[in-house]
Amino acid sequence: LPSLEDEGIISSLAELLDTTVENLKEQVKGSEEVNPMLGLRGCRLGITRPSIIEMQVRAVIEAALNAIDAGVDAKPDIMVPLVGKVEEFRNQAALIRSVAQTVFSERGKTCDFKVGTMIEIPRAALIAHEIAEEAEFFSFGSNDLTQLTFGYSRDDVGTFLPSYMNKGILMDDPFVTIDTEGVGQLIKMTVEKGRAVKPDMKIGVCGEHGGDPRSVHFFANEAGLSYVSCSPFRVPIARLSAAQAQVQKES
User: Fold this and answer.
1) Are 122 and 145 in contact (CB under 8 A)?
2) 5-29, pLDDT tens digit by residue?
3) Dist CA 198 CA 196 (whole Å)
4) Can you tell me the distance from the alpha carbon of 165 to that of 156, in angstroms, rounded to the nearest whole number?
5) Which listed residue, of 33, 204, 239, 248, carries a Cα 20 to 30 Å from 48's Cα?
6) How far apart are CA 225 and CA 35, in angstroms?
7) Spatial distance between the Cα atoms of 138 and 40, rounded to a whole number of angstroms
8) Which of 31, 9, 33 lies closest to 21 in space, CA to CA?
């Protein structure tokens, strides 16, 4: 949301939206949340503000078609975030596929794409077999899954994490190295439930854990994930860790 104190941005945005500054300020105030991390984000935003998803899907599909025209074998994977109920995924997947078909009709050409979901909410792990009936792939949002499993705010964890580690309550920062006892069990459960429905289902992880060596070993050798995704600067570490995990698995 734009800051109400930034009159310049508010004024410019109001002009772009063809509304008044006063009306825009009221909309901003009405959208403020006490706890945004548990509020209107992810698929909840897409369900209540479908025009945002329509814009994003159109951009992805058009970019893929443009890339194909340029000789790139583009096959986008579109993820629906923060799903906790299969009905949420079903709603967003239908919208995504509808927009894609509209673009295909407009362009007179198509491309392969898949619609999957982020597993970030513990409830999604518990009903992974239901979601797998609808989704074409899973990707663990390990940062949010850790936050929602522990009940720790990742933005505020620094207020108590040092004390917890000094007192031996936590041995590692769970936002750096995956908690194999708790969060890890949810991950393994999800993989088992998902592949019971679709044995060849692609399942990966997206988050900073994807660049942590110990976490990568867990994902590869214990959880059986297909891939890891992380920040660009962590990619060399992730590739090395994945190779080491594979060697360890085969030895």
Assistant:
1) yes
2) 788 888 888 888 889 988 988 888 8
3) 6
4) 15
5) 204
6) 32
7) 22
8) 9
